[in-house]
Design the sequence.
């Protein structure tokens, strides 16, 4: 695992080595073990290394292929590299290291984009062809690893983190109105748009190619369209057996490392099943959990302890409270690059920092809900057609009743979202933080004008159309896996873990698991009211019954009571500060009313308040991020 940066001068001017060095220094937290820069006239490539495979200097980058014509910088892991290496060795390739990087660059040298299609892993990588004077930049198929890029008429700049690009441009970023409205609506950036004008993200499975002044984009991977309706005839037992084999193989592949590997264990079914499969490999498992001793309903450490004891793991726990949040929040805002309003970034960061004292790699359960049907909103979506047929008077009565109980957030979300006819708009309704109407109420100035032309569901609409013949749950799998998953959960884990130089791997997103999940009939995702039906069948003989049967909990944070308690004045001081209100984005009276209603327990506004808090802290950091990057430019790589 590493971090990569690069510059390509479209005019043919020589790349600035100092600028590339500055970019690499800014993301040194991603790879403290080694760093280097390569330049070849119009191109400059840099990287920072977190040594995982082949810890010797032979594994350092930038790395050339056997011919010396191709140069690669690479962030990630390819789990099928040993099979690919054997194939290349059979073709006469002689390797100098045991790293997967060398396999990747030699595979590309011989097979081009077709070789990248064969990689099963998580990565952002760039390859320069000295012979063709051509640069290729790729993002992995599922979007586990991010790749940002800046493009104008003069140059292309890319990096694993947005802050590295800011170090190169040397300018205070201009906020993108669409990026800001995306954030306020969903609590995160929606790729390819970012919060900064002219800086974008490569999409999962996408690549860019630069040669001379020409920069083009393409796709080397298309997410599989669900086909579960074709295999409904198969007995459930066959599906269970196949799922077992696919998951075991994925975990076995992702355990390969030359450093200690642990598991994030929350006590839920996903992380518990991974723990079980790792334990079956025969080694002692290091497991890590996080808890909230003052907020018992949010705490799953007792379940995690049960699983740890069941498998005899070396179990470690860290306990956190409000003070940890305040102490870490500015640090988190810096590392996320863009405002990111999933408060679960806090426990992921604190757990990663804690785990990093004992291991260098951790396995985590991200992707289990998307692959196997774990979200409660999936249950709700199944009843949408039935709800639409109800008489209007019944639907109106349900909405009024829910609204009467302001803190009944789930009931209000159900009645408001089920009333939406369009599937893409309804999907947006399930996942949004601020609705369009709510934004009209709180926004002011030019941002309110931009809202008139903003369609927050446009990116989802295309995916729904491409999967129009799919069953209900399969369609949600298809959309979630390409939007919500990479934009929220994978972004959260990458930035929080790499901030402390910890590599986190996600076995549920192994490509073989993804392709298997695309074939699942809806009845194996959810049966009656049981989510993750198939996964629970796989887990039943492996885990304690209480873990298999427990409802979804998720990695939640007690922001609701914290924002009414010890954090109340902290938040008010930031959001109602004259400097904050003076930005002209928000109606001060609307913000104050929101804070008061939440404090008085008239309404649960924790998500909205958290979204606004993180935005303001990010705004305050924008200049400091740029200045810190330029200070690092003076240091050699």
Sequence:
């Amino acid at each position: 695992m590493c971090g990569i940066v690069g510059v390509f001068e479209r005019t043919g001017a020589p790349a600035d080595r100092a600028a590339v060095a500055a970019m690499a220094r800014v993301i040194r937290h991603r790879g403290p073990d080694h760093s280097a820069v390569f330049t070849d006239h119009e191109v400059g490539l840099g990287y920072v290394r977190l040594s995982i495979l082949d810890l010797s200097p032979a594994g350092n980058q930038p790395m050339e292929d056997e011919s010396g014509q191709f140069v690669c910088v690479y962030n990630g892991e390819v789990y099928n590299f040993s099979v690919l290496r054997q194939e290349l060795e059979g073709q006469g390739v002689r390797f100098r290291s045991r790293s997967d990087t060398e396999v990747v660059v030699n595979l590309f040298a011989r097979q081009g984009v077709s070789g990248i299609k064969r990689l099963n892993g998580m990565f952002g990588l760039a390859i320069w062809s000295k012979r063709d004077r051509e640069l290729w930049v790729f993002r992995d198929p599922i979007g586990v690893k991010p790749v940002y890029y800046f493009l104008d008429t003069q140059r292309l700049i890319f990096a694993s983190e947005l802050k590295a690009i800011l170090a190169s441009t040397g300018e205070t970023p201009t906020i993108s109105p669409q990026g800001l409205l995306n954030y306020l609506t969903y609590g995160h950036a929606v790729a390819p748009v970012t919060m900064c004008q002219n800086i974008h993200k490569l999409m999962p499975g996408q690549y860019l190619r630069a040669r001379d002044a020409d920069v083009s984009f393409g796709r080397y991977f298309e997410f599989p369209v669900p086909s579960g309706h074709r295999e409904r005839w198969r007995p459930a037992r066959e599906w269970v057996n196949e799922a077992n084999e696919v998951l075991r193989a994925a975990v076995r592949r992702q355990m390969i490392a030359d450093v200690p590997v642990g598991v994030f264990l929350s006590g839920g079914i996903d992380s518990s099943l991974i723990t079980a499969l790792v334990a079956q490999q025969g080694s002692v498992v290091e497991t890590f959990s996080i808890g909230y001793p003052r907020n018992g309903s949010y705490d799953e450490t007792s379940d995690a302890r049960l699983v740890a004891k069941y498998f005899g793991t070396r179990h470690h726990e860290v306990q956190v409270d409000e003070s940890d949040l305040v102490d870490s929040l500015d640090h988190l805002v810096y590392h996320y690059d863009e405002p990111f309003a999933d408060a679960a970034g806090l426990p992921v960061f604190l757990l990663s920092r804690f785990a990093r004292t004992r291991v260098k790699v951790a396995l985590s359960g991200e992707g289990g809900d998307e692959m196997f049907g774990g979200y409660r909103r999936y249950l709700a979506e199944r009843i949408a057609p039935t709800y639409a047929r109800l008489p209007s008077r019944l639907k109106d009565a349900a909405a009024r009743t829910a609204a009467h109980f302001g803190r009944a957030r789930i009931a209000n979300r159900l009645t408001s979202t089920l009333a939406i006819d369009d599937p893409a708009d309804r999907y947006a309704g399930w996942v949004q933080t601020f609705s369009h109407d709510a934004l009209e109420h709180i926004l002011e100035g030019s941002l309110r004008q931009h809202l008139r032309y903003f369609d927050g569901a446009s990116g989802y609409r295309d995916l729904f159309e491409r999967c129009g013949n799919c069953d209900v749950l399969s369609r949600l799998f298809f959309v979630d896996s390409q939007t919500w998953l990479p934009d929220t959960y994978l972004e959260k884990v990458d930035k929080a873990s790499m901030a402390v130089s910890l590599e986190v791997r996600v076995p549920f997103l192994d490509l073989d698991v993804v392709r298997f999940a695309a074939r699942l009939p809806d009845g194996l995702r959810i049966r009656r009211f049981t989510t993750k039906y198939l996964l629970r069948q796989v887990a039943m003989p492996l885990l304690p019954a209480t873990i298999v049967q427990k409802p979804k909990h998720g990695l939640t944070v007690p922001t609701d009571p914290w924002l009414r308690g010890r954090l109340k004045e902290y938040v008010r001081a930031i959001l109602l500060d004259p400097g904050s209100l003076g930005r002209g984005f928000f109606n001060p009276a609307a913000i104050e009313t929101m804070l008061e209603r939440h404090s008085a327990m008239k309404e649960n506004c924790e998500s909205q308040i958290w979204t606004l808090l993180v935005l303001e802290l990010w705004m305050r950091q924008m200049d400091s991020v740029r200045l810190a990057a330029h200070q690092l430019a003076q240091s050699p790589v």
About this structure: The CA atoms of residues 186 and 354 lie 29 Å apart. The longest strand covers residues 70-78.
